[in-house]
Amino acid sequence: MNLKRITGSLTFRINLTLFIVIGILAFGFSKAIVHVVNVINNGNQCVSLSTIVSQAVDAHLLRIENATKAAAAINHDNQLSYANSRIFCDSIKSIINADSVYVAAHRSEYFKVEQALKTVWENGAPQWSEPYRDKAGNETVTFLAPLRNRRSNVYAVLCVNMSTKWMKELTDNERATERTEIAIVSPKNVYIFNTDSTLFAQPADTVQLTRIREYSIPCNGINLSVGGEGAVTQKTLQRCGWTIQCIIPQGDYGVVTLIIMIFTYIMMISLFVLLALCILVIMRWYLHPLSEIADATEAISHGNFNVELPKVKQRTDIRQLRDNFMRMQEALKQYIQDLRHTTEQKVSMERDISIAAHIQKGMLPKPLSKRPDIDIYGLLKPAKVVGGDLYDYFIRRSVGADGESHDFLFFCIGDISGKGVAASLLMTVAGHLFRNISRRTTSAARICEAMNTGLAEGNDENMFCTLFVGVLNLTTLRLDFCNAGHNPPVLVTEGKAAYMQPKVNMPLGVMDDIQYESETLAMHKDDILFLYTDGVNEAENPAKRLFGNDNTLKAVQAASNSISMRVLAANVLANVSNFAQGAEQSDDLTILSLKCLADTPAE
User: Fold this and answer.
1) Quick one: which of 32, 146, 516, 584 could link to 445 by a disulfide (CB 3.0–4.6 Å)?
2) 19-74 pLDDT, tens per residue?
3) Which helix (H) or strand (E) holds 146?
4) Are 271 and 88 in contact (CB under 8 A)?
5) Which residue from 172, 175, 192 is spatially nearest to 247, judged by alpha carbons?
6) Is 518 helix (H, G, I), strand (E, B) or coil?
C-alpha cells in the first residue's frame, strides 16, 4: 500500500525523471572530462618519457663516440700494424664495454657495416651503421671512426660493435605499463630498437603514428602528437640522426587522470545522493504521518518505548495503524521492563567478554596458503575466554642486505603480563604495532625498539610484554631475530632438538629508549623452529607439578617428524593435555612453529 502511494504520486515521477536526466548528463560530462584530462596527461607523460630516454641514449652514444674518437686520435702519428691492432682493439673494448672492436678496410661480412665503411672512406667522418644481426643472432649497431696516418689520410676504419641490450634495459626501467611503446629509428627509417623485438631492423611503421596524430605540438625540440588513441613523441638526436619514438596509448591512466576521474565520479555520486535526499524530503512531506509512524516504530524496535507516536486527525487506515502501535507499545514497555530487570547485569558482562574475545580473535593471522619454501602454524588457547598471549606472521617482499628483492617471513610470539580483558587489550595494541612497524624494516631489533616505544607511552598500569621477533629471508634462509625477555625457542636441526641460547633483552613496555640487539642464524632445509609461551612449560597437573622445560624439549623432539607444523603443534598440545590430566588451565598457552622446506641457494 505504501509503495503504491509513493510510486503513484506525481511528485515522485517528476523527481525520478529529473534524477535520471541529470544522472545521464553528469555521467557524460564526467566521461568527457576524463577523456580530455587523459589526453593531456598522456601528452605530458610522453614528453617526459621521450626526454628521459633521449638524454640517456644520447649520453650512452656520446660516451662510445668520445672514447672511440679519442682512441683513433691517439694513434694519429703511429699507424697501426697487424701485430698491435689487436691489443689496441682489446683496450678500447674493455673501456667502453663493447661486444667487439676491430680494424677494417673496405670489406665486411655484414652488408650494413660494409655500406657504412664505404661512406667513412669517402667522407672521412665517423658514422653509425644501420642495425643488423651478427652471427650469434644479437641485435647490433656499429660505430665506425676513421684511422689516419701522419699525412691525415685514412688508412683503416676502427669498428665498434654494440649490442642493443642496453636499450632494452633502459626502456624496461622507464616504461610505466606494458602497453607503452618505445622505439629508436635510424636515419633510413629502420628500427634500431623496438619494445616489440620482432620489429628489429624492419622499416618503421607510420600507420599508428598517423592514426594518433590529430594535434601536433612542438615542445622543447620534441614533436608531440596527441589524439583519441593516445600520444606520441618524436625526438631526433642531432649527433647521429637517430629518432626516439614514444607512444602511450589511450587508456593508460596516469595518477593525475585517476585523481580527477575519482573526483569527477565522487561529484557525480554526490549529485545523485543530493537528488535522492530531495526526493526523500518531498516524499516525507507528502506522506508525513506515515513517515512519523515508521520513525516511531523504528525507535521502539531499538528499545525506546517512551517515544511519542504522531497524532493523526484524519479517520484513515493510518490512524488505525497508529492506535494499534500505541497499544503494542504499552504492552512491550511493560514486558521489556520486567525482562531488563533480571538480565541487565548478565548481558553487560557477556557483552564485555564477547567484545574482548572478538578483538583477540581478529588479531590472529590467517593461515598461509601452501608454499614450497615454508610451513608455519600457530595456535592460541587462552586460560579464560580472552587471554594475553599473541602470535602473528606474514610474508612481505622487501630488499635484503644483498640489495636484491626477496620474500621475508615476519613472525612474533609474545606474552602480556596478567590475564583477562586488560591483557587482551594490550595484546591488540602490540599486534597492531608489530604489523605496522614490520612494514618499514627487516631488522628484528628495530621492530622491538619501535614496539617498546609505543607500549611504554602512557603505560600507567606498568604492564609489560615478553616478545620474540624473527625475520626470515625465504631465499637465503637467513634468520634475523631478537628476544625481548621471552622463553628461549627450540631449534630442531638434523633431527635433533635443542634450546637456543639467544641474548635476552628487556621486555617491551618497561621503559622507553632501550636499545635492543638482534642476532642472525643460518637455517637449512627441514630445520624447525618451535616457539611457545609459558603456558606450555608451566602447565600444571592435579599434583601441582609443572610440565617443565625437559618435557617440552622431549615433546618437540618426538613430534619433529610430523608431516606438517599443524600436526607438530597438535602433538605437543596433546602431550601437555595428557600431562595436565584435566587440571584447570592456569595460564594462556600459545605455540608457533615453522619449518624450512627449501634449500638455501648455492653460493
Assistant:
1) 516
2) 677 777 777 777 777 667 667 777 777 788 888 888 888 888 888 888 888 777 77
3) strand 139-148
4) no
5) 175
6) coil
